[in-house]
Amino acid sequence: MNRSLAPLAAVVITAACGGSATPAAVPAPAPTPVAAAPSAPAIPDTMRSYAVPAFRTDTMITWGPLPPGTPHPERARIYDLQHQVVHVRFDWPRHAVVGSTTIRVAALDKPLTTIPLDAVGMTIQKVSAPNGARLKYDYDGSTLTVRLPGTLRPRSTTSFAVDYEAVRPKKGAYFIDRRHVVWTQGETEDNRYWVPTWDFPNDKATWEFYIQTDTNEKALSNGALRGQPRRVGNQLEWHWVLDQPNSTYLMTAATGDYVVLQDKWRNVPVGYWTYPDSVEATWRGMGKTPRMIELFSNKTGVDYPFAKYDQLNAPDYIFGGMENVTATTQADDDILHPAWAEPQANAEGLVSHELGHQWYGDYLTTRDWSHVWLNEGFATFMEQTWTEFGMGADEGAMDRLGAHQQTIAADRAARRPLVYNRWVTDPLELFFSGHIYPKGATVLQMIRHQLGDSLFWRGMNRYTTQHAKGNVVSDDLRAAFEQVSGRDFKPFFDKWVYGAGFPVFQVSYSYDSTAHTVTLDAREVQQRDSLTGYFDPDVDVEILTDGAPVRGVVQVRNGAGHASFTVASAPRSIRWDKGNWLLDLTDFPRPTVMLAWQLAHDDDVVGRIEAVDLLAKRTDELIARRALIAATHDAAHAVRGRAVAALRSQAGAPMVADAIIAASRDSDARVRQSALRALAAVHSSAAAARAREAATGDSSLINRGSALMTLAALDGDAALDVIKSALASDSWLDLSRTQAVTALGTIDSPTAIPTLMRYIGTGTARNTRVAAIDALTARAAGHEAEVAAAIEPLLGVDDDIFVRIEAAGALGELKQQSSIAALEARRKVEAESRVINTIDAALAAIRK
Ligand SMILES: [Zn+2]
Fold first, then answer.
1. pTM of the model
2. CA 343, CA 230: separation in Å to the nearest integer?
3. How much distance in Å is there from the Cα of 501 to the middle of ligand 1?
4. Which of 267, 333, 475, 494 is an S-S bond match for 7, by CB 3.0 to 4.6 Å?
């Protein structure tokens, strides 16, 4: 699965990857004792720039509390689900799933007299034996318990059929009226809302779907299409057969007026299911799939393991994507974008993530939700693999850096081990804490770096082939790496998989000009407790001198590391964790001149980013400022964008404003966006004129929005004409209107609140509604009751999930007692855990 982004956020995040003002994970050195007001430096600038600052005095990170919830051990298997045939029809007038399913089960090692099935909110019409005889059953609204006619002996099989209906299912199957499309969503435990089944990952079965559609429509499901669709009355019936066993949360059915664009990898059909009006954008979004399949097949040594691969564009989808085996569902907003939106909009991350799941998640499946990093961390790792090999080493390194930053933020908010089984209402809560995706991928990258590519991929191949078509836990992975390497991976897994946190270092250096040595000393200073100890890694270091670079390793043991390196001349710059393979936070105070050298000379893009982030705290020093200005011409867009953002704090200084304005014309839209944001700190008529020009003329609509925000910050009311024109224009993802609403929220105008209220109701696009609620909440001071009263009704209708989340969150911020009734009423009928969790937090905030 891939997290759904409210699409505005998607745009912002995509753009942020390109080097905007995203806060850096790399810590800043402590202010030097001489860092007085820049206008009156205590010592000359150049001398200060050669001094080594002191260590920071703050704790670099405080671990957040464990995520809440009660433990949920793996559900014990009762029987073996072997094969399931589902006949299903979607009844549009009633929004009902009308189905009949035949289920074959085998007893395990105990005799059985009843078979419990997960089936939520259904009407059960009958349960029958293969000879047609009716079987008795009990049904409590969530478990259908079928009473077998006799005792089923161990390892023998039986089958029966269930006829059922699910009218307006709260989850699982979604009827999207505006496109006349039905799609389903199983993960985590939601297929039980539309198909009675064993709905837990630890059993694998084969299945078939017979799906009825109107004659102008098509149906997609897992596996291979058997023959041509058959005419049944005035409907078509599509028969899909999955002949490799899989976990039932990967069942899918989708219907609609789709066209299928046919591609292929070797002899495997690859299909892109899309709307007739979106063919070109679909090729743009999905067209690299065969190249990705080739890369993943080669890297894993396991050819794509299924007979075909289809991807479906889903309207109003509730996640980014879902790896339903052989039939991935993806949010159309995340796939379909116009050509001008690249590279800020890019579907390759999502497409490669869901494709990676076909190996990790589908071919091999976590046995239990607590080990779900074996699905999601792996899919994220495969996504990083595509980024590195498909888009280049710099992009790969930036992708890995982003994962580190997300993991660090996650541990700051709520530290937890990678393997974790506590949640409040839904296992889905395990997914998006920031651990299993980015940290899972990072753990694999660390193993890759320890073993080297060749041995690492042999380990991956061993794991993949040994557990093909099976269920896995984390120790299966450990065993595979131990088998191929002969090394003991228990200490590593104890720290990084079953333990929590990461190392935090204080590093210092000294240079002996007589002995020609550089000595490095490191200490682990993280808070240690039962979950986090010492990590004791081997850390790559690099020293740049006027001669050849000196590279080596510092072995940290029992929390301390010390190593000396011979150098031909004085060190120009020193990198701790060259290549950024280790997940860590480090305070390594170095003089400004060293950082400036690193920014100009490090061949590792992450090293240059580190230098930018540290120099950003020293822009009162001329050397730092000059280095950052020079970096706005770096070869890597990420460095250029980050350098422009770093200059913001000195935007009034000579040369800096010119550099920011120049960068707002960079050829890369991501750099321009960073510059257009930084322009808000340049208080000059030239800056305002440039912002106005970009707000109406940049080739990227995304950048027009950023320029509009800057114009609103610089010019206030004077931006209203541009805002009005954007509010009136239709665009991809309703982007112009969304951005105009956001900008309006920052302007102090009496028309702001009444105008914003016009955009929160149905009839406006999802993104714009979410942005309007957000802007209203931010502007509400003095009008809290009025704004809350406008937002409360959004919870009362069956509305978009993202609007419900945003509305509940807004009410929590507005803290009106009068909102409690609306929140409680929604809480009673709400089924989506993400909304439930937000409502609970809002109620707690109001009552506090
Ligand atoms: Zn995923």
1. 0.94
2. 43
3. 22
4. 333
